[in-house]
Amino acid sequence: MVRQIILLITTFTVCDVFSCNMVMGYRENERQPFINRAPQHDGLYIDLYKQALKEINCTLSVVRAPKKRILNMLKKGQIDFYPGLSFNKQRSAYVHFIKNGLKDELIAISKKSLSKYNTRLNLKFNLESYTFLMAQGANTLGIEHSGARIRYVENLSIANAVKFISENKADYYIYHKASLLYYLNTNHITHLEIHACCGEPKPMYLGFSKRSIYAEKTLNTSFNNHIALSPNNTPYNLKKQSKAFQLATSLQRLKQLGYIKHLEELYFHP
Known about the structure:
Blueprint: E1 3-6, E2 10-13, E3 20-26, H1 44-54, E4 58-64, H2 67-76, E5 81-82, H3 89-92, E6 95-104, E7 106-111, E8 131-135, E9 149-153, H4 158-166, E10 172-176, H5 177-186, E11 192-196, E12 202-209, E13 217-219, E14 236-238, H6 243-256, H7 259-268
Parallel strand pairs: 3-4, 8-9, 8-10
Antiparallel strand pairs: 1-2, 2-4, 5-12, 6-12, 7-10, 7-11, 13-14
């Protein structure tokens, strides 16, 4: 049964008949084709996590709010997970990073008159001359240390980013390749330059709250404190009997069965 309750934030309950219900949090603006703008939640994320949770007898609810509030809720255990979250040391203090079976890659867009921005070429031009557009709370990739200016925008959407760059209010915008190309192609935008900028495709992770009732942890005996923290090198692992661990296992099983590839073909190549 589908229920919708509108409070200060929008909550979407997919089903409430199983033994557990996990709450996924996401910002209010869209990230097509993964998730629609609130109060709608349709997209690849819903199909993926609904199926993965169904296989472990859990259901899915979705809460939407500004990203900073969502991350704070994640930190407090008020929501269980964020569906696609980049790793950093600060976040690793309050979330477990779990592969969701998808790949992620960052690219940049700019006006065609600007030089190429490509980290593989060791940033060949002078970043001090340029302004990068960033959503509030987004991973800055260390750009703030290069001398570049960063313009932060609350609840920044791709549509607004394109508008900012087209109106010369920023020079570069870095975002997830799948969503950025989807928007440019769907809206027939050809006046912007696309830059391969930020490394090869990497596994995408969900961030699971360490304070969630579904995230029992155990010491990671393979943890190496002499090397940098990473999704694969953290002091704690999830207990195998925890629902969070079962979700991780379910997602990898869906990948092996070809379900995730099916979703990618459905959403990226309709």
